[in-house]
Amino acid sequence: MDTKTASLTGKQTKFFETLKQYISKHAASPTVDELITLTKSSSPRAVTQYLGALERKGLIRRERYKRRGIELCILGNSYESETVSIPVIASAGCDNMKVFAEEHTGEYLCVSNELVRGKNLKNIACIKAIGDSMNDAGINEGDHVLVEMTQAIMENDLVVAIIDSFAVIKKIEYANNAVILRPVSSDPAHKPIILRRDFNIFGKVIDVIRAGQKGDVEIVPLYQAR
User: Fold this and answer.
1) CATH architecture of 83-220
2) Any idea which fold 3-72 has?
3) How far is it, in rounded angstroms, from Cα 19 to Cα 29?
4) Rounded CA gap, 225 and 215, in Å?
5) Which pLDDT tens digits describe the chain residue by residue (226 residues)?
C-alpha cells in the first residue's frame, strides 16, 4: 500500500475508493452533489472536508472553478493520471539565509507529468519560496519551486543551497576559488553570498508554480541567463 493511502482513515479510504471507481467508470470526476449521494454524506461541507484531506495528502488535485474539476494523482503504478504527486519538503529563503531548512511532512503538490518527464521522481521535491530577492527570476514569496536534487549544476543555474541549516534559492556563479550565490533582483539591498569552491548544492530549480488569487495555478517562466 502507498504511504499516502496508508495514512487515510477508514472513512477517508472508503470515500477515496468511491471517487476512484466513479472516475474509472465515467472518465470524469463527480460533482459535489453526486458525491453526497454516492458516499451518503450528510452535507456538502462533509464532502469538501474529505476532498480537502485527500488533496493535502497528495492523492487528488482540484480545479476550484470547474464543476468536475477533481483529478487523481499518480501513486506508483496503481492508476493512470496526467499528474504526479511531489512532496513539499521545506521552505527556502529568497533573502539571505532567513529561513531555517525544516522538513515538512504530509504535504504534497500535484503537478503535470510534463514538468518532470524523463526525470527520476525520487530526486524531485517541492520547496516553498520565502522572500523577494529572486523576483526578477520569476520566483516570488509563496511560490512553489520544483527542485531536482542533483550535483550536475552549470553556471547561471537557479539552485537551492543549504548553508548552516538555512536554505536559500539563488543564481549560481563560479569564480576561481569561490562559489557565488547571487540574488536576481533590482533591489540593491539583496547581496550575493560567497562560499568556498567545494561547497555542495542541494539541487537545481526546474520550474516555478504560482498559485493565483483565485486558486488557479500558473507555471512561471524561469530566468534566462544572458
Assistant:
1) Ribbon (2.10)
2) Arc Repressor Mutant, subunit A (1.10.10)
3) 7
4) 30
5) 555 676 788 899 999 989 988 887 787 889 999 999 999 988 899 999 999 889 888 888 887 777 788 888 865 444 445 677 788 887 777 765 556 555 654 677 777 777 787 778 788 888 888 888 999 998 988 888 999 988 888 999 999 988 877 888 999 998 888 889 999 999 888 899 888 866 778 889 998 987 654 444 555 555 554 4
Q: Which residue has the cell 500500500?
A: 1
SS3 content of the chain, % helix, strand, coil (to 5): 25, 30, 45
> Residue 195: how many CB atoms within 10 A of its CB?
16
| Domain boundaries defined on the chain | 3-72, 83-220
How far apart are the C-alpha atoms of 32 and 47, rounded to whole Å?
A: 7
Provide the angle, in degrees to the nearest 10, between the axes of the packed helices 32-39 and 44-56. Answer: 100
Instruction: Specify the residue for cell string 523576483.
Output: 135
- Rounded Cα distance between 131 and 147, Å, is 17
Is 203 within 8 Å of 152 (Cβ atoms)?
A: no
In sequence order, the 6+-apart residues with CB closer than 8 A to the CB of 117 are none
